[in-house]
Fold this protein.
Amino acid sequence: MTPLFDGIASFAQGRDSRKFSIEEAVRSCLDRIENLDPELGAFLSLNPNAVNRARQLDNRMARNPAQSPFYGYPVAIKDNLHVAGMPTTCASRMLANYRPLENATVVDRLLKAGAVILGKTNMDEFAMGSSTENSAMGVTRNPWDTRRVPGGSSGGSAVAVASDMAPMALGSDTGGSIRQPAAFCGVLGLKPTYGRISRYGLVAFSSSLDQIGPFARRAQDALEMMLVLSGPDGRDMTVASRNPEEMRRDFASEVRGMVIGMPEEFFSDGLDDGVRVSLERAREVLAAEGAEFRPVRLPSAQYGINVYYLIATSEAASNLSRYDGVRYGYRSLKASNIRDLYTHTRQEGFGPEVKRRILLGTFALSAGYQDQYYRKAQQVQSLIREEFDRAFHEVDMLFAPTTPTPPFLFGEKSSDPLAMYLSDIYTISANLAGLPALSVPSWPTAEGLPVGAQLIGPAWSEGRLLKVASVLEEAVGVRRPPMTGERQGGEAA
Amino acid sequence: MKLTHDQVTHVARLASLSLTPEEEAHFAEELSQILDYVENLNRLMLPPPGLHVGDGVSDPTPLHPDIPRPSVPVEEALSNAPDRSGQFFRVPRILEEGR
């Protein structure tokens, strides 16, 4: 059960020295999925052509050496990103049988680099949630403690990487949906700058906030994947024409002399002691490396949740109006006229959290309330952006917890939407400001539960964030959940 | 802000969602709580009117080049249809009898 390789450098080396074939590498992941996933539930579907593709890549490599570190690399894809030939369900009854016609741009780029797609991963329905409990397809468990949630909405991708079923995965992050599950599962997760990566082929939730990003064990791996994914494609016109190579250059920068801000509002009363202690240790490591820490204030950031649940739900209400049962997706069989077709289809096809958000967003945009809610939320969003801008005149990046608590138990928050929303309190403001942010594993709590340290930077600073993350990664060491280790193979304890 | 039963029904109609009576009662309660929470935005000093989202973004979004391309073939477009008839999506009658 030991993984054949550990990260993309070790994979490329093993592949090029013929220590293992691509087929063996892919099979080793599929074997782990077969062994571990019945309990963990990270995958919604597997790619039936994964082994075939691996063989084809092996054959091609016999004639030409591999051109990309991703050549033959197995990856998992969140089930709201299109992979032609596989379902895209968004973990919703509404899209249970939907098959996309083409690949998302990010999937196309990974395939061009030679990656092998293992399967599609579980998530909260339409990426709405923080625990993956809102999936209509099943439960995903945290490999560190299977009584606990993996976080969400990209819970399946986080679990796949944390348990070495896939060495890397893609997720999407609208209010923390990559960083929060990365923190809960003890892996690295990066939400890029708004405009770094094309969302073409990502099922839209809140288009002014959605970003696609990687899950990885190592900062170096996340960097390599960012280089493959980034840049304009002519299909998502919000992508900026920046040279992705700037990230490689920034990744080579020195931590010594960096000025790192600690936003007081992110270390206030609601923060769990175990998380606080872990973060303090991480701060000491970075300080010992020569980073200078400085307190900063982001007074409006505490309103991020309020702003988010007006803006994201308003955009969701609009984006999800396309599910009407006419051209694709679920259709209610109860309807005898067109109006009932829409309303029954949506009643039966959407789960409770999706309905809640559609209703909230529709209300926030409705006549008489738009100025009071939606417009006000946009004004406060501008305030939050300005405060970040001011902070980045004084510091190179911000250091904060990713989540207020370690992973919580199943059912702990699922009946209280507000309590669930508050688990994203530290991640949401980066989305509202369009900034890059990542979660990197810090030291676990005394109970052995994962803790994430969050780094938030100015626009286009992913390379620097990953550099600082790599320093923490070296100090903390790459840790693996006990249930996924060699002991799993049946050795005597 | 307390949402009334009628307001939830109205919003559900705008959102093309049919709700069961239990759902209506439940969402009225829950949405009221959420709105109470988000309303503390009113305590903030807001920037003067006229400041919009996107003002901080230096580059305007570029326009898509206007180049004609072939559209999705009919068979592919219909491949996910819940119901079809020949080259068309089939839906229940739209015009009511006698109109």
